[in-house]
Amino acid sequence: MMLVDAHQHFWRLADRNGAWPPPDLAAIYRDFFPADLAPLLAQHGVARTVLVQSMPGEDDTRFMLGLARAHTFIGGVVGWVDLKAPDAPARIAALAGDSLLKGLRPMLQDLEDDDWIADPALAPAVDAMLRHGLSFDALVLPRHLPALHAFALRHPDLPIVIDHGAKPLIAQGTLEPWRSDIARLAALPQVSCKLSGLVTEAGADWDLDRLRPYVDHLLDCFGPRRLIWGSDWPVLNLAADYARWLGACASLLDGLSGADRLAVFGLNALRFYRID
Fold first, then answer.
1. CA distances to 78, 117, 134, 217 from 107, in Å
2. For the chain, how many structural domains are there in total?
3. What would the pLDDT profile of 226-256 be if each residue is shown by its tens digit?
4. CATH number at residue 50
5. What's the whole-model pTM score?
6. DSSP readout, 96-160?
7. At 244, which helix (H) or strand (E)?
8. What is the per-residue pLDDT across 110-147, written as a single tens digit (0 to 9) for each?
9. Which residue in 18, 120, 146, 214 is a FRET match for 26, CA 20 to 30 A apart?
10. What domain range includes position 127?
């Protein structure tokens, strides 16, 4: 089975100027580069990855694109552009000149305005994304899902993937309104979802039983052809490790057919991000 990790990060602390992660998150408060991840990919048979932004700046996007050009296991990059900037279309065009740029991700979870994504002023940037064949990663919390739904309705041609299942409140055991809002978004055919990041929402004492209601709901809503596996490494290290998360997902999805497992763990990512 060809595995694709559809969500991982690299960063250099010196570039972050005090931005997240803070020093008290000792497990991830250091530099992370391809040499750190490559042994894990080889150990678990992961052939390609999608490198995702973790800072709201174009310099970070160019840093990631440089890494992708140097390391063939990186199949694509999800970068950042200020989508409401007056020159956003030109900025998108410039970055999209590199074919390794596959998508863009505003850091919605960090914005004060929960309705930022529902603003019609995003239309010029979305039009530019569509012209250049880019997708949209939605880094959202459950409270953002109604606004994301409005955005998705307004832009039915834009491929959207919800990162980390929208970070449900797993540690608290809360399902609603996340469950209903996810189902409403999943009814839109251009919306997919990443099976990633859930253990950090569940807490360090997570187990399969705690995760199962959320994973089952995502699978029920999106089906095995719009659910995309990712590690969220190295953030994953706050609550698990690569082997444990991959094994947990294999167990949680053990009822799938072989073809559907191939889709969730690899083929869906290749298709969504247009990776050869």
1. 12, 10, 17, 25
2. 1
3. 999 999 999 999 999 999 999 999 999 999 9
4. 3.20.20.140
5. 0.98
6. HTSTTEEEE---GGG-S-TTGGG-GGGHHHHHHHHHTT-EEEE---GGGHHHHHHHHHH-TTS-E
7. helix 242-252
8. 999 999 999 999 999 999 999 999 999 999 999 999 99
9. 214
10. 3-272
